[in-house]
Specification:
4-stranded antiparallel sheet; single chain; 14% helix; disordered N terminus; 9-stranded antiparallel sheet; 40% strand; mainly beta; 256 residues
């Protein structure tokens, strides 16, 4: 075989190889790559399926409750995700890594609990040389609007809100839990009917080069009373079950 023929054969082989290799690499951290939306095996406990995307989730079924949930804005902007896929960790969490924004990187970890709720951990890393303050807003929208909303406060600190339960026009409710007992920072909720959204605002200070995490829980309930009962049944130990000790130290809105 002459030199030109050998070159042609080599190029053909390389082109064939490039088509056989996926456009993404399996992360070295383990687990499997999953495309979006991710459908965890656990539903919401009320007959609906969770659909998980990078920066939000929704429910799907005969009567879905969430049109949108957990949408994160950092300083009024969404983080940017370069690939529409995630890694399914060995513990069952969907892990979205290397999302970016101005002066930070973000990792989001989403777990569908066997009891029907979602646990989300957002880890923000300050990639600058000095301490920065980030203004966070999380937005959720019931599928049939908001008829009324109710905050659930800490039983020991009556003026400290832990969660918001918003009831839709069908009588069902979405449940947004953004703090636990002993939290270092607490949320501010806004679930006015005319807005159509439940928004949760938090201010987060992150030292230079360090990471800080916010944990939040989302669930559906048959009505407002059931949603309030669900919030009161939660304990920090239950919510943090399975979270590694090192990660617990990063979480500022639930005491480890």
């Amino acid at each position: 075989m002459n030199r030109n023929a050998l070159l042609v054969v080599t190029l053909v082989a390389l082109l064939g190889l490039s088509h056989s290799v996926p456009s993404f690499a399996l992360p070295a951290k383990g687990g499997s790559v999953i495309p979006m939306p991710y459908r965890p095996p656990q539903g919401d406990g009320n007959g609906n399926q969770w659909l998980i995307y990078a920066m939000m989730f929704r429910t799907q079924g005969n009567s879905p409750v969430y049109s949108e949930g957990g949408m994160l804005y950092v300083d009024n902007n969404n983080p940017v995700m370069n690939r529409n896929m995630a890694r399914l960790d060995d513990n069952g969490e969907a892990v979205f890594e290397n999302m970016t924004g101005q002066n930070y990187t973000l990792t989001r970890r989403v777990m569908a609990d066997k009891d029907g709720y979602l646990r989300v951990i957002d880890i923000i890393k300050n990639n600058q040389a000095g301490e920065l303050t980030y203004n966070l807003m999380f937005r959720s929208q019931p599928n049939f609007g908001i008829q009324a909303s109710q905050n659930v406060n800490d039983a020991q600190k009556k003026d400290v809100p832990l969660a918001c339960v918003a009831q839709d026009s069908q009588g069902r409710a979405i449940v947004e839990v953004f703090a636990g007992r002993g939290a270092k920072i607490v949320p501010a909720f806004n679930g006015q009917p005319q807005n159509g959204f439940v928004t949760t605002n938090m201010t987060l200070k992150v030292p230079a080069g360090k990471e800080v995490a916010i944990l939040h829980v989302h669930a559906t309930a048959a009505n407002t009373d059931a949603g309030v009962k669900f919030v009161k049944s939660l304990t920090n130990a239950k919510i943090l079950a399975g979270v590694p000790a090192a990660m617990r130290k990063l979480i500022v809105n639930f005491a480890p």
